[in-house]
Amino acid sequence: MEDPAQREAARATARPETDGWTRAVVPIESVDHAHDEFLRLGAGIQVLEPAELRRRVQATVETLAGLYR
Fold first, then answer.
1. d(CA 47, CA 34)
2. Residue 3: its pLDDT value, please?
3. Separation of alpha carbons 53 and 26, rounded Å
4. Which of these, 15, 21, 33, 44, could form a disulfide with 29 (CB 3.0-4.6 Å)?
5. At what angle do helices 31-39 and 51-67 cross, to 10 degrees?
6. Residue 41 in contact with residue 24, Cβ under 8 Å?
7. Is the dihedral of CA 8, 9, 10, 14 positive or negative?
8. Which residues contact 35 (CB under 8 A, 6 or more apart)?
9. What is the model's pLDDT at position 23?
10. How confident is the model at residue 24 (pLDDT cuts 50, 70, 90)?
C-alpha cells in the first residue's frame, strides 16, 4: 500500500507545469525526516515550503558545494 506522499506524488505527476516541473504537496513526518529524504533526490526536487525545511536544505547544499569547489 502506498503512503500519502507516494499517492500525492503519483497524482501530481499527471499535471506538469509549463516549465516542466510538477508541483506536489507532500505530507512530511518531520522537518528532519523530510530533509534527509528530499536530499536523496538531488537536483530533481526543489523545496518551496515550509520555510524551515527550505532553509535547512539550502544550508546543506551550500555546505556540500563548498566541499566540492
1. 10
2. 65
3. 12
4. 33
5. 40
6. no
7. positive
8. 53, 56, 57, 60
9. 86
10. confident
